[in-house]
Amino acid sequence: MPAKAVAFVAADSPSAQEALGRLKRRYGHGDPDEADVIVALGGDGFMLETLHRLMDLKVPIYGMHYGSVGFLMNKSNEDGLMERLDAAQPVALHPLQMDARCLDGTRHEALAINEVSLLRETRQAAKIRVKIDGVVRVDTLICDGVMVATPAGSTAYNLSASGPVVPIGAGVLALTPISAFRPRRWRGALLPRSAKVVFEILEAAKRPVSAVADHTEVRDVAEVHVRENRRKKLNLLFDPEHDLEERILSEQFLP
User: Fold this and answer.
1) Among the options 12, 31, 33, 44, which is catalytic?
2) Are 26 and 19 in contact (CB under 8 A)?
3) Stretch 54-58: mean pLDDT, rounded?
C-alpha cells in the first residue's frame, strides 16, 4: 500500500511531548490539513479536544495513550506504526447537537462527543421538564442534573451517574438523571438515536441551571434541545486487538 501522510498532535504533558519528538523524527510529520491520518498523543481528554478541533477536516484519527485515561486510545507502542495504521479498524461516531436558549434570550450551539449535561448552579435542586419527540415524559424532574450520552460517552460521566453502558452499534442514546430526588425511582431511559430531547427549566431564575456539551458550558439556560447530528461524522482508528465495541461491552462486567 502507498505510504500514508501522517500528522502528529500531542497533549502538553511531558510524556506526550517527548513521544511527539521521537515519532516525528522516526516517521516524519505533515500538516493535519494534508494528512491521510492524524495521530493524537495523550489521553481521552486530549482525544476529545482533538476531535472537536479537527472535526471539519474529516480525517481519521488514531490515538496513542500518553495520558491518565485511555479508553479512546490505542497502546503507546511506537514500533511499526505505519503497519498498525494500515491494519487499524475504523469506528464512526456522530456527535450530539446542543441548542440552548438562555434566560436573557441569547442562543448557543455546541457539539458533544460524550454527553450533553444539565447541572444545577446553586445549592437548590434543579426542576426540569423532559420532553421526547414532543411528548412530556417527566413533568418535573427534581435533581442535581440530567444528561444525554452517546454510546462513546456512556462509559464516562454517564457511567459514574449510574447510567447504562451503551454498545456502539446499539443505535440508542442514554438519558440519565443526576442525583434525582423526584421521581425517586426513575433511573433514566434508553432513547432511539433519532430522538429529539427538550429540557425545559422550571423556576429557572430561582433555580439556575447550566448546560454543558463536553467542555462547552452555557450558564442560566431556559430551554435546551439535544439531538444526534447525523451530518457530522468522526472517524476513529483502533488496533484490531483494542476493539472499542468489546471494551464498551466489557465495562458492564467490571467489578
Assistant:
1) 44
2) no
3) 91
